[in-house]
Specification:
The protein is an alpha+beta fold. The chain has 3 helices and 3 strands. It is 34% helix and 23% strand. One of its GO terms (molecular function) is methyltransferase activity.
Length: 82
């Protein structure tokens, strides 16, 4: 696989990636996620997780790069043990 090239199953790959990130985060841990919208809009990526970001920021010459911050809450941790 070439760097920056997505497989056909990219949606499932990213969905599972988010799931794993939140699984290993401690309660109230933060996840800082970077995405560039060159090919795929960030709204499509955010639709792949149930987690809601705390905030985000656009940057870059064309404002296509997004930095998005998530926090794992205690309720998620209880569900995992549950």
């Amino acid at each position: 696989m070439k760097y920056g090239k997505l497989r056909e199953e990219w949606r499932e790959d990213i969905r599972q990636g988010f799931r794993e990130c939140f699984r290993v985060l401690r309660p109230f841990g933060t996840l800082i996620f970077k995405w560039n919208e060159h090919e795929i809009p960030v709204r499509e990526i955010l639709a792949l997780t149930d987690q809601k970001p705390l905030f985000g920021n656009r940057c870059g010459k064309t404002a296509k790069t997004h930095w998005i911050v998530f926090m794992k809450d205690a309720a998620i941790n209880a569900e995992e043990r549950g």
